[in-house]
Amino acid sequence: MLRFLLRDLIGHRNSRSLHLLATSLFLGVLLISACTGLLALVRDGIASEERQLFGGDVELDTREPLDPNALAWITKRGTVSRLIELRTMLGTINEEFTVIELQSVDKHYPLYGNVSFEPAITLAEATDNLGAAIDPALAFELGLKVGDNVTIGDTTVTVRAVVQGQPDRAFSADISGPPVLVSEQTLDATGLISANSRAEYEYRVRLTGPNIEPENGVYGDTTQFRNDWRAAFPDNTAELNTVEGRNDRVSERLNEVAAVLLLIAVATLLVGGLGVANGVAAWMQSRRADLATLSAIGAKDNWRGTIMVIEILLVALLSSLIAALIGASIAYVVSRSLSGGLPVATSPALLFWPTLVSMAFGTLSALAFAAPNLARSLSTAPATLLRGDTETDSRSPLSLRAKAACAALAIAAALALIALVPDKIIGIGFVFSIILLYAALSELVVLIRNFARRIVQSGKLDKRFAARRALAGMDQPGSPLRPLLLSLGIATTLLVAATIVIVAMLRLLDSTVPSRAPSLAFYDIQKQDVNDFTQVVTNAPGVTEVQTVPLVLGRLTQVNGELLSARDNASEALEANDEHKLSYRAERVDNIRATSGELWPHNYQGPPLVAMEDREAGQIGVQVGDTLTFSILGKNLEAKLVAIYAQGNFETRFWFEALFSPGVLDNFITRYVGIAFQDTAAPDFVPQNTSNTPIDIVAANSISTEYPAVVTVRTSRGLLAAKRILNAAALAVSLVALTSLLASLLVLASVVAANRQRQLQEAAILHAIGSRHRSLMQALGIEYLLLGTVVAVFASIVGGILGSLIAVFWLELPVGVFTWLSGATVAVAIAGLCLTAGAIWVARSLSVSPAALLREVV
Amino acid sequence: MIELKNVHLAYSAAGRSIPVLSGASLSVAKGESVAIIGPSGSGKTSLLLVLTGLETPDSGSVIFDGLELHAQSNDARADLRRDKIGIVFQNFHLIPSLTACENVALPLDIAGSDNARVRAAELLERVGLGHRKDHYPNAMSGGERQRVALARALIHQPALMVADEPTGNLDNQTGDAVADLLFKLNQENDATLILVTHDPALAARCQRQVRLHEGQLNLVQA
Asked: Do residues B78 and A745 touch, judged by C-beta distance below 8 A?
């Protein structure tokens, strides 16, 4: 058998159908391998970037050091880095003072990423022996340079470096002022840590364990950590945050980006699978006569079946292996070339799984799609095949056993696909979507055939040969309409859906950091100073608009009269430890919109109402209609939750967690926060040695002079950092999407071309009996135009709806007219390009000698 | 009616040029029937393709009804086949996705003629396949397929009928029946007939026989 098998394959080495099978498999698997590989690298890059921004996997915040038991507990589960943060004043030798955030770091800091200084020294060199590393904005503001001495508390420290890059500060709120990094010894020396100081202790944990390999994208289970922590220390009041639950819009966007990438990869799997199906079908079609011949000379069904399966397996394995390796190489090269500016990992080890999975999927798909063809060929009488009757066997029903085998393989393939997708719900949803799409398109095929038959039978086209041929061709047995419409229709619909989500995502990424954002944010404005302060800011250079809102800190203690801390769910119960930022509604400050319930009118007067931020409400598990009790300054405040809102974008970073109806907080207000817009676009960072002072710094300095106790933060820095990350993420999405689209086009064009073989044969015969080339081309053009229009319209509508549902209900992305238009454009482009490629292939084939074509027609 | 003058044709295979026609010449008058005979692989089918404008010779000319065939455009040659030439292929070359009736009606459809399917059904009745008009070629026997091909070649009443081994794939009895039909219908149409065959009995039914040998046509029997 082996000898026959090898000889048979070698004998077919020049066979067109074998080439088509190998090429289709190659393209399909290449597409899957390159996209899933790139996805793995980008997802890991994003995961790593998120951890750099967050500072670890988990963070415990307290107002005092953790007790030794708790510290020992967390130290057992990972590397712990302790930071102590304290708001204080820094003085220069000229006795200029400013508010800073003093931050002590230990030898483990930072747990993810690297901190860099100017000059290029290590963290220890910068902070040991009463050294300090200061923020560039502070250096600029006070004219400080390396080597200068400054006073902090009771001690004098030396500026050793200016911080150039600090991974966890990119856009964390600089509420306490520009950061100054020192060692814990220096912090002790300042004498600022006392029982009454408002120091914050941050215990960051990088989880470790036998299966945890952050360098390979395998991170620790933070949910498990949280649940275990709550079980071990139910009374500990430390605020626990995890990287996944990080209350930050940029981090949320990055998670959405990862989800969109997953969607692209899933769509890619199907398109690649279609390519494989196409190749296998062509190969099996070409082998029917051989199967009949083998049967005629005495080969049994099992022997014939085994030969075919092993042949397909060999070709599939070889093609898939080569394609998967090349695909992985493409993903690696792309990631390497982009690693400078993108959150992309570059570890080749991350590509192992996607490569293996792509290869397995290609091979499994080839076998799954070969099964019905093989079963049909084996169950057809050899005499039928030997008569050259390829129609009868392709229409003949399968035996019950064959049907069961095919169904089992199809279910296995579906289960494999669900298993391959990291998010199982998405995998299941995807499989159901495909079944529904298949059913809808099958119905559409019936409708088109009925329509074509009626038109042809009506005799209206009797004088129009080309149009008649085009329509009649759709209703003939063996017409490529069904396979073409099903494959092209499903693929285009999915690609349109993916496009809708991608464009919605990109638009959101773009608008997350608005072009017109406040350039200054103010913290700790005392209640009695608000009006005067507003006046001063209004008069500052370039300021066009000022807005202030109260900032009240409080904890949510009860929901509908039940203690939050008593909940069984650790995540919800731990929320009772969180200090929430509470305020009133203001137009510009947080640009909110209600996602459920309704916000009260601005002139509302009545019982206390509250609205909660969507992520916070989700974490606590509250719903509109609940009665919430907050503890503020030791008093309880009860209000009815009437709305849940989303914050529009990344503007001020105040991130109020709850907003109250007018007057409710009045008795608790002690301080305000504010924002100021300037009439220039958010200015870029300017190096400290330039004489061209940015307008926001000028304004900030003039305000600080009048109100030194108010912390003035230039928001442009954080906005720029956020914009850089989001732009990089957008680029990554675009790149993966483009790779997928281009490869999909190749696969689909090959599907179209393969289905044209019969059309080519018919055209050759028609030309021989007197049809002009032009008529044949017209028939081809009309058929493709009809097919293209049907595919484009169907994909635009169904793909648009599917994409919008995913965008709106799963990812909560806004979908607008432009997004729909993008989807429709992609539908037209894919249908147009694939069919044009197919038409060009047929047209080129027809342009050869008709005699040569006729010789090929058997 | 049709004249071949010193036609040369060679094919390339595996980098070699294989001569098929080497100065073939032939003149067939209107209404005449001529059989071209020769063993398999002698180039008979190639000669037929050249005669119908489906293959372009390397040199020499084919004059059809006073027109230099290969000086015409591709479309003009297609028009000539549509209006004046009927071809019967050895492998039938029916379109498998069309019924017998639709296959026969094709030349009329191409020409935009009226009542194409009605006339096709009538002709199928005449060749004894009226009851099979709605059947697809794959559901028919070889003889039936060839009769459909014959009806398709004759439906537009061509001035020249070219048949390539019309009985080559058929058993003797069926072959005889098809040949009878071919000569009968051709006679009714008063058409010129060029028949390519290696069957001496079939060739003998033609007015003249020429043999294709080493790329040249030699008169065997007038």
From this structure: no
> Residue A253's pLDDT is what?
67
Q: Is A682 a residue whose pLDDT tops 50?
A: no
Residue A626's pLDDT is: 94
Spatial distance between the Cα atoms of A614 and A657, rounded to a whole number of angstroms = 9
Residue B87 to residue A769, Cβ atoms within 8 A: yes
Select the residue of A465, A476, A768 nearest B87 (Cβ to Cβ).
Answer: A768
Q: What is the CATH number of the domain that holds B25?
A: 3.40.50.300
Domain extent for B203: 2-221
A104-139, pLDDT tens digit by residue? 999 999 998 888 898 999 999 999 989 999 988 788
Distance (Å, whole) CA A413 – CA B219 = 67
Each residue's pLDDT tens digit, A223-275: 889 889 988 988 888 888 888 766 555 666 666 776 777 677 777 767 777 77
A289 and B CB contact within 8 Å: no
* Secondary structure letter of residue A288 according to DSSP: H
What whole-number distance in Å separates Cα of residue A751 and Cα of residue A484?
Answer: 7
Strand partners, A163: A117
In A, minimum Cα distance to B95 occurs at A762
Query: Which tens digits make up the pLDDT trace of A482-510?
Result: 877 888 888 888 889 888 888 888 887 77
pLDDT (0 to 100) of residue A124: 92
pLDDT along chain B (222 residues), means of 10: 90 82 90 88 85 89 89 87 88 84 90 87 88 88 88 90 82 80 81 88 90 86 60
CA gap A598, A836 in Å, rounded: 51
**Is B56 in a helix, a strand, or coil?**
coil
Q: Quick one: closest CA in B to A852, which residue?
A: B55
A581: which strand partners? A553
From chain B, the residues in CB contact with A476 under 8 A are 97-98
pLDDT, position A157: 94
Q: Please say whether the beta carbons of A83 and A245 come within 8 A.
A: no
Tokens standing for residue A829: 């482009």
For residue range A747-763, list pLDDT tens digits in order: 777 767 666 666 777 88
The whole-number pLDDT of residue A795 equals 92
Length of chain A: 858
CA distances A567 to A230, A478, A570, A628, Å, are: 11, 64, 7, 15
| Mean pLDDT, rounded, for A140-154 | 88
- Residue spans of the domains in chain A: they are 1-45+250-417, 56-242, 520-680
Structure-token match 């459809």, residue found: B109
Sequence-distant (≥ 6) Cβ neighbours of residue A855 within 8 angstroms: none
Name the residue among A390, A476, A766 with its Cβ closest to that of B106.
A766
Contact assignment for A769 to B74 by CB distance below 8 Å = no
Cross-chain residue pair A392–B89, CB shorter than 8 Å = no
Report which of A320, A350, A325 is spatially closest to residue A335, judged by C-alpha positions: A350
CB contact at 8 A, A652 and A602: no
B52 touches A at CB < 8 Å: yes
Give rounded-to-5 percent helix, strand, coil for chain A: 55, 15, 25
A768 shares contact with chain B (CB less than 8 Å) = yes
As for how many domains chain B has, the answer is 1
**Hey, what amino acid is at A15?**
S
Chain B residue closest in CA terms to A476: B97
Torsion angle of C-alpha atoms A848, A852, A858, B2, degrees rounded to 10 = 110
Least Cα distance to A664 among A701, A639, A697 occurs for: A639
Q: Are A353 and A40 in contact (CB under 8 A)?
A: yes
Mutate to test the interface with A, among B73, B89, B138, B162 (most CBs of A within 10 A): B138
The amino acid at A71? L
Q: Does B78 touch chain A (CB under 8 A)?
A: yes
Nearest chain B residue to A480 by CA distance is B97
